[in-house]
Design a protein that fits this description.
heterodimer, A: about 575 residues, alpha/beta, FAD/NAD(P)-binding domain, Flavocytochrome C3, Chain A, domain 1, Methane Monooxygenase Hydroxylase, Chain G, domain 1, 3 domains, five-stranded parallel sheet, 17 helices, B: about 110 residues, mainly beta, Alpha-Beta Plaits, three-stranded antiparallel sheet, two-stranded antiparallel sheet, 2 helices, about 10% helix, binds flavin-adenine dinucleotide
């Protein structure tokens, strides 16, 4: 069928997964292993072989319980690192699965380093070293072997909602003028977090030389918001302390070979600050710079020359830019200290805790919609293996859901609204039909500038205050209207970028409401309110959640009390 | 940040509509030009993940740092073989260093 020059393809499946990344692939494999007859379709905007966060490779599994560690000690650590406020049930259910999912990754063929006793080579208590260049191709092969169907280069845009129940996904092709209406009995969102909301650390010709994947733009959040799903803790942004210019991860040298973290005077400065938590290490570095003691460095000059080659190999496996930097500076890893700095803030549930508000089974507040990975809030520091764990939990919950008699009857009774399908097709292809307008790149710069200046970006030392946030709110509302009216796409590739921008603006708007609402400073640098500089457990030991009203464009904030170690249940079936 | 494609080495993977580099780019930034060679459509959008560098069967793609962030001409190329990658680093003075990394248990 063709509508308005656009080919429309209708597909029906049992479970559709949005995003063939870390969590999405693991969810698909889990479903096919548990219930081979269940049909699974993975929609991936790139190609599963090298999509999302893992495209370049990694060299550690950051969440694994080495001998002596338990799910409870993992929870203790995550809580301590996150100012106490996390969803204990989510973190614990991740902890219970970390080691099993890691072993599965090894069984898929990824090389793990082992010590004399045959244990994985530890890099700290909850971390193991791997040779992870091929992590994504290895996961993709497991996905392909599972029997799940895959649609690569297909960009999801919204959920298909029937009478309040998620019953599929709308998507379009990144290659041709083609629109997909995919109906399913359940939907799992695993589309990752959001980069590109703030002005990046490098701009111009290097604007995508960032830490988080620049192609994960928060569409998973935006789709949920437009469907009325509740989101949590966007205000706990994640800011990565990374190697300057090339944004390479630091764990390999900080934990791996015990680099000293020093300021320009050569002092190990972290002792000056309250703790060594991840946000505090970012904050300490910002403060050293503000006090005139920057730049700050990771100092490897103590290492013998024999380490140089191994370190370069480690970085080739995940962030080759640093190897080029050493070569361009005509130095070796132990030649001179490496400058470190903060990235722009990201909205991501795998390191920070922004994302869907889910119950222990990773059910969102929209019936039929499950979520896993960086798109899920409340459980920071989950990393690769935590995303696998959530993929597994969401997969099993989705299977259980579609097996329920009452659900099947309800889905059978429902009919897709042709009017809604036409409306979404119109919305998706509108930027392509315009003759005149504004290209997505221009709006992207505008958005990033607003966020940088008024919502605590790099140039503001990540600091937030009410008057500036109110200004951000105002400017973003105007921007959202303008974008809706004017955004233009010259071709299908630019159409992808147009929707990325539309989704980023929505995420930014919700983020600003969260930042305005929490009137304390809980997570240094990540959520640094200079007008409320103290942490206030009495008032603010609570989750800040939000719901977007698609019709009016309003954002409603809801407080959800911390519920202790018991599972949060009872909202999976709100409709 | 970007990669450079050597036009005399790239053969567009024959008449494939989806050459290997085009297939793997997580940002969908590579495409074919009218002369059947691959080009990067928007260098500023490149993440520098090196997926295309490792995928190219012709070793036609190399990675460099832009001048803006201190690039002085070093390049990285990769040859992917079963279970391993051989990297070639060329430094500004033309000297080379080779690395072999194990990628999969085969
Ligand atoms: C550079 C970097 C290094 C890291 N290093 C480590 C490490 O060493 N150890 C560790 O444990 N963790 C590491 N992490 C964290 C870890 O990689 C992430 O937490 C995890 O991979 C996230 O998994 P995910 O499935 O949520 O997202 P992803 O794996 O990114 O998957 C999301 C997928 O959704 C797709 N997608 C997005 N939007 C759409 C759409 N609209 N339609 C269809 N598909 C879409 C994307 O293309 C992508 O494939 C690192 C992260 C980064 C960015």
């Amino acid at each position: 069928m063709k509508t308005d020059g656009v080919e429309v393809e209708r597909i029906s499946t049992d479970i559709v997964i949005v995003g063939g990344g870390t969590a999405g692939c693991f969810a698909a494999v889990t479903i096919k292993e548990t219930s081979p007859a269940t049909e699974v379709l993975v929609i991936e905007k790139a190609h599963v072989k090298r999509s999302g966060c893992l495209a370049a490779g990694v060299n550690a599994i950051n969440a694994y319980l080495n001998p002596g560690e338990t799910p409870e000690t993992y929870l203790d650590y995550v809580k301590k690192d996150s100012a106490g406020l996390v969803r204990d049930d989510l973190v614990l259910t991740i902890g219970q699965r970390l080691n099993r999912v890691t072993e599965k990754l090894e069984s898929w063929g990824l090389p793990f380093q082992k010590d004399e006793s045959g244990c994985y080579k530890p890099r700290g208590k909850r971390n193991v070293e791997i040779t992870g260049e091929a992590i994504k191709p290895v996961i993709a092969t497991a996905l392909q072997n599972s029997g799940a169907k895959i649609l690569n280069r297909t960009v999801a845009t919204n959920y298909l909602i029937n009478e309040g129940v998620a019953a599929g996904v709308y998507a379009f092709s990144a290659r041709e003028k083609k629109f997909y209406v995919i109906t399913a009995k359940a939907v799992i969102c695993a589309a990752g977090g959001a980069a590109g909301i703030y002005k990046p650390n490098n701009d111009g010709s290097s604007r995508h030389k960032m830490w988080y994947c620049p192609f994960n733009v928060g569409t998973g959040f935006a789709m949920g918001l437009r469907a009325g799903a509740e989101m949590t803790t966007f205000e706990m942004r994640f800011i990565a302390l990374r190697i300057k210019d090339v944004a390479s991860p630091t764990g390999t040298i900080a934990q791996g070979v015990k680099a000293r973290q020093v300021n320009a005077l050569g002092e190990e400065y972290q002792g000056r600050y309250e703790s060594r938590s991840t946000p505090m290490r970012m904050y300490g570095t910002v403060e050293e710079n503000k006090a005139g003691r920057g730049p700050c460095y990771l100092d490897l000059t103590h290492l013998p020359n024999s380490h140089n080659r191994r370190l370069k190999e480690a970085y080739l496996n995940m962030s080759p830019g640093l190897v080029l930097k050493w070569a361009d500076e005509e130095t070796e890893p132990n030649g001179k200290p490496l400058e470190i700095c903060g990235s722009e803030p990201y909205i991501v549930g795998g390191h920070g805790q922004a994302g869907y508000w889910v119950d222990s089974e990773r059910k969102t507040t929209v019936k039929g919609l499950f979520a896993a990975g960086d798109v899920v809030g409340g459980a920071p520091k989950k990393y690769v293996t935590g995303c696998f764990a959530e993929g597994e939990i969401a997969a099993l919950a989705a299977l259980e859901y579609i097996g329920q008699e009452s659900v099947r009857a309800e889905l059978d009774r429902q009919e897709n609204s042709e009017q809604e399908i036409t409306a979404e097709l119109g919305r998706v292809f509108e930027p392509l039909r315009k003759q005149r307008g504004v290209a997505p790149d221009k709006y992207e710069e505008r958005l990033q500038k607003i966020m940088d200046k008024y919502a605590g970006g790099i140039s503001a030392n990540y600091e937030l205050c009410e008057p500036k946030l109110l200004r951000a709110r105002e400017l973003l509302i105007t921007l959202q209207h303008e974008v809706k009216k004017n955004i233009l796409a010259a071709d299908v590739h630019e159409l992808v970028k147009a929707h990325e921008l539309i989704d980023r603006v929505l995420v930014a708007r919700v983020l600003v409401e969260h930042l305005l609402y929490r009137k304390e400073t809980r997570w240094r640098s990540y959520q640094e309110r200079v007008d409320y500089p103290r942490r206030d457990d009495e008032r603010w030991f609570t989750f800040v959640n939000s719901v977007y009203q698609r019709e009016s464009g309003d954002i409603q904030i809801i407080e959800r009390p911390w519920s202790g170690e018991t599972a949060v249940e009872g909202f999976g079936g709100r409709v | 940040m970007t990669v450079r494609i050597n036009k005399s080495l790239c053969n567009g993977c024959g008449n494939s509509v989806e050459p290997k580099c085009v297939m793997v780019c997580p940002g969908d930034l590579l495409c074919k030009d009218p002369s059947n060679r691959c080009v990067i459509r928007d260098p500023k959008d490149c993440w520098d993940c090196a997926a295309c560098v490792k995928e190219c069967p012709q070793q036609a793609i190399e990675m460099t740092l832009p001048v803006q962030i201190g690039g002085r001409g070093s390049t990285l190329k990769a040859k992917t073989e079963k279970g391993r990658i051989i990297w070639q680093l060329t430094k500004p003075d033309g000297s080379k260093e080779f690395f072999e990394v194990h990628t999969r248990n085969t």
